[in-house]
Design brief:
Blueprint lengths: L6 H11 L6 E6 L11 H12 L4 E5 L22 H7 L5 E2 L7 E4 L3 H5 L13 H7 L3 E5 L8 H9 L12 E5 L5 E5 L14 H6 L4 E5 L2 E7 H14 L12 H12 L5
Parallel strand pairs: 1-2, 1-5
Antiparallel strand pairs: 2-4, 3-4, 5-9, 6-7, 8-9
Length: 269
């Protein structure tokens, strides 16, 4: 039976793939792919923080996607839906969570407040959003046991490329948000975070340019890349083939309608 991974094992993996002291990094993960980890996800968070050191910032996607009707999003109490590692990080001492009701992030590090501030003023994964701020400071994307369909920074690349994205059939809902001072405010969702099923097409162009570092730790594939490289690569491939990241499932309303928008703009046949 395989032995449990220790903090030393994870430290070696994260440093070998390229995490360095002072890094700001967003981590997308499927914790179970690591196998048995001594002391569970707490060890993984502690190891990530150790790898980036006291000057680094650990960003975790504490996404909710949707909320029950009438229930306000409360950053202090509403759990995320993106796995045990992000939930562990959300509850970590000193973690700061942004106010976006569908695509909040939690940050642990010296710049947590700066990275998470005023998320409601921007599109969920748009220009000026927390992930964009991380990219602008040279931040990185770490994928632990997940592929590029989980790489939310690709959505940001779509935003920079100006993809005329369409919402789901029911339109754009309005959510209620409980602010840290107890006020309830309304926030309308946007189209920056629609379908990611086709995002696997973004990987090969990045690998062609040597932009991804990766290793395998048992059954778990770990990938590291610069967030700005992801954005720039996505902008480049979309300029060459505007619908390259849209999925081909006929029932996908956002991708089908976005293709219609691209045809109207005469960007695709």
């Amino acid at each position: 039976m395989p032995s449990e991974l220790t903090q030393a094992d994870l430290t070696r993996a994260f440093t070998d793939v390229g995490l360095q002291p002072g890094d700001s990094v967003i981590v997308h993960s499927a914790f179970r792919t690591l196998g048995a980890v001594q002391d569970g996800p707490q060890t993984a968070i502690a190891t990530l923080l150790e790898a980036i050191g006291p000057r680094g910032n650990l960003m975790l996607p504490t996404f909710n996607y949707t909320l029950p009707p009438g229930e306000p999003f409360d950053p202090a109490h509403t759990p995320g839906l993106t796995g045990v590692l992000t939930e562990t990080g959300r509850a970590w001492p000193g973690a700061v969570r942004s106010l976006c009701p569908t695509h909040s992030v939690a940050v642990i590090g010296p710049d947590a407040k700066e990275l998470t501030a005023d998320h409601l003023r921007f599109r969920a994964v748009g220009i000026g959003s927390p992930i964009d701020r991380l990219a602008k400071r040279g931040g990185k994307v770490l994928l632990i046991g997940v592929g590029h369909t989980s790489n939310t920074t690709i959505h940001l690349g779509e935003e920079y490329a100006g993809v005329p994205k369409a919402p789901w059939a029911q339109g754009l809902p309005t959510w209620t948000v409980r602010t840290p001072d107890g006020q309830i405010v309304e926030h309308r969702h946007d189209t920056s975070t629609t379908c990611s099923t086709g995002f696997g097409a973004a990987e090969y162009p990045m690998r062609q340019r040597g932009l991804i570092r990766d290793l395998r730790h048992g059954a778990c594939k770990i990938q590291l890349m610069r967030a700005q490289d992801v954005i720039d690569s996505v902008v480049r491939v979309i300029s060459e083939k505007p619908d390259i990241l849209l999925c081909t499932w006929p029932g996908c309303v956002p991708c089908t309608r976005t293709r219609e928008n691209l045809r109207r703009e005469k960007k695709i046949p």
